[in-house]
Amino acid sequence: MNILKKIYCRIFSDLFSYRTPCSSLQRTGTDRRIQTRPGSPEKHHISHILLVTDPGVYKLGLTKPLEKQLLKSEISCTIYKDTVANPTSANIEEAKDLYLAHGCQALLAFGGGSSMDCAKAVGARLARPNKPLAKMDGILKIWHKLPLLIAVPTTAGTGSETTLAAVITDADTHHKYAINDFNLIPDYAVLEPSVTYGLPPQLTATTGMDALTHAIEAYIGRSTTKQTRAASIEAIQLIFDNLQTAYKNGNDKTARHHMLRASYLAGTAFTKSYVGYVHAVAHSLGGCYGIPHGLANSVLLPIVLKAYGTAAHKKLARLARILPAFLIRNLMQLQPKSSSTTSET
Ligand SMILES: NC(=O)c1ccc[n+]([C@@H]2O[C@H](COP(=O)([O-])OP(=O)(O)OC[C@H]3O[C@@H](n4cnc5c(N)ncnc54)[C@H](O)[C@@H]3O)[C@@H](O)[C@H]2O)c1
Ligand SMILES: [Fe+2]
Fold it and tell me: Which atom of ligand 1 is the closest one to the Cα of 196?
């Protein structure tokens, strides 16, 4: 990279990380219901909401209890259920048109990162109706408040329920890009483990690895703070301790709860400290070839960490020193049953 561009990027990134703690990033609530906006959602007097989800989640009937609850609360709901993995600009325009046609007043994202990002980008288009999505690519291009946005993650990986990003694929060019703006941080995030029980093992593993990648990239990056390093470490510990259990037994409430917490913490960390080259490459693979985001990260993480070479050794060594207890515990769990039987006899 050209030296002047490098200096510009470094100054911009430093200013951004100083501004972040002063922004409207104050999070309150319990560890299941987190809010960045004061007051409860009921206070906003919403009578019609756009629920954004994907075909898989919808077909599994996961939205049904929510629809029933909304009906009980006299909130009618229009459902956009066509979000694809690596959501496209076409998804966003369709969902936005539905929002306007039905006179919706708020957005409820229910699904994985794809549904949450779709809802976030719909909010951005509503806030800036004259600005095409492609012009929002980059940092701080929205500046306007979005309609009320509630996010309920059904995967434990992206952390999109707390991040300032929405990652979108251009339907024509397949270019995948991130829109980053403080206004994209959902007003309310609901971390409900039961909606993740049915997540198949393969998706549990790959989405969990996405969360691990966020935590590691946020930790080894050059814009970390004490807070983001602590959030990264907690997320990594939770993932080491719970991902295998969630993979083997999807109904394990504790493991699912901890994985949602880990994904959320990793999201808070990278929102301030960014991700790195693993994500840069994964986004290209997702945009051009539709490779699921978590899968791309899982394959790329060891390769890119190795390619960083000595530049990353110090911070990775620090992580390695913190983690041995977890590694040992997990390795012991991996011992084949026959060897433990042999040692007992
Ligand atoms: N905004 C951010 O900060 C951020 C961060 C990381 C990744 N992302 C983006 O998020 C997207 C990936 O999201 P994802 O990994 O959560 O996957 P996803 O949302 O694309 O969902 C993957 C699949 O899982 C299924 N699924 C979701 N929840 C389920 C459940 N509970 N039970 C059964 N099936 C379920 C879906 O139907 C879908 O088929 C990518 O586009 C990625 O770039 C965004
Ligand atoms: Fe990611």
Answer: 31
